[in-house]
Amino acid sequence: MSQFTGATIQKAANIYYDGKVTSRTVTLENGTKVTLGIMLPGVYEFSTDGPETMEILSGNLKVLLPGTEVWKDINGAETFHVPGNSKFALEVFALTDYCCSYPIV
Question: Which Pfam families match (predicted)?
Answer without folding.
Answer: Ppnp
